[in-house]
Amino acid sequence: MRPSATIFALLFPLAAVAQYSxxxxxxxxxxxxxxxxxxxxxxxTHGNTNFLSAKDASKKQLAFVNANGNAIIxxxxxxxxxxxxxxxxxxxxxxxRFTIGSVWVVDMLHMPYGxxxxxxxxxSALSWPEGGEIDxxxxxxxxxxxxxxxxxxxxLQGNASTIDTSALGRPTANYSSDGCAITSFxxxxxxxxNIALCGDYAGSSSSFYPSCTGxxxxxxVLGNPSVYDTAYFEVQHLRVYGIPGGFTVIxxxxxxxxxxxxxxxxxxxxALAFLLSVWV
Length: 280
Ligand SMILES: *[C@@H]1O[C@H](CO)[C@@H](O)[C@H](O)[C@H]1NC(C)=O
Ligand SMILES: *[C@@H]1O[C@H](CO)[C@@H](O)[C@H](O)[C@H]1NC(C)=O
Ligand SMILES: *[C@@H]1O[C@H](CO)[C@@H](O)[C@H](O)[C@H]1NC(C)=O
Ligand SMILES: *[C@@H]1O[C@H](CO)[C@@H](O)[C@H](O)[C@H]1NC(C)=O
What we know:
mainly beta; disordered C terminus; Glycosyl_Hydrlase_16; transmembrane; single chain; ConA-like_dom_sf; disordered N terminus; transmembrane helix; binds 2-acetamido-2-deoxy-beta-D-glucopyranose
């Protein structure tokens, strides 16, 4: 099993615009240039993870560009740990933030999975949770959600500097704006990859026991490190698109917040599935 997916996250304007231009790309040898590394314990979701600094991540080879030019973001699968230590992993967020109205495309060849593993591709505003958190994709343990992605459709890959959102097809989920003032709840977002272990979601008995056995921390995090051989992202690229001439990128350090167009879509695509979440 090698789940993979091309994911389109769209922060979609009300006046439907189909044609967007690329404003930012994270890919190849420079993939990791413009991210913040969390650099401390998982104090947000209480997982058994140390999220490394950029320096340690590079030194320990948990965040690197592989020989194929793809970004690898992974859990330590070589150290045998003793109680009460936690396992090294990665959480990174884009230094830039992207406004409501932008389109995000991430092309992944591999998603992390396995007992105790909790990967997420998501985003957050600077002010959390008030400024909004968008969980584009997450899964825990042997969650069947990981099957949503499989291999991407080569026709939805490519190198386009523009994207035509009207060509993305029919949504499988659509969260309507009826009754929800989206602009009051979502601010510009920083995009995040992370892999937590156990914690509030993967470690809760209702998520853990349907597919896994034992005790999340003692038997898995402290157990044989090879169980984490599959706990990695392999990312071909992450691209952000915006309306031509529009205001999409807020560079790191900028404090300006923009409350803009009120709707949100996420597409998941693969050879087997075409999935879409929509906040409109
Ligand atoms: C987590 O720890 C960091 C570093 O000590 C701190 O800046 C941050 O506010 C903490 N976050 C939470 C949610 O406790
Ligand atoms: C594809 O994108 C890469 C950068 O990601 C660039 O170097 C290359 O020239 C592009 N190829 C085409 C055909 O546009
Ligand atoms: C989502 O639902 C709303 C309200 O039901 C509808 O107006 C809109 O067209 C839907 N969006 C898509 C992309 O299907
Ligand atoms: C860690 O996992 C990777 C695959 O993700 C594998 O290539 C490597 O051999 C593993 N390392 C160890 C020490 O088992």
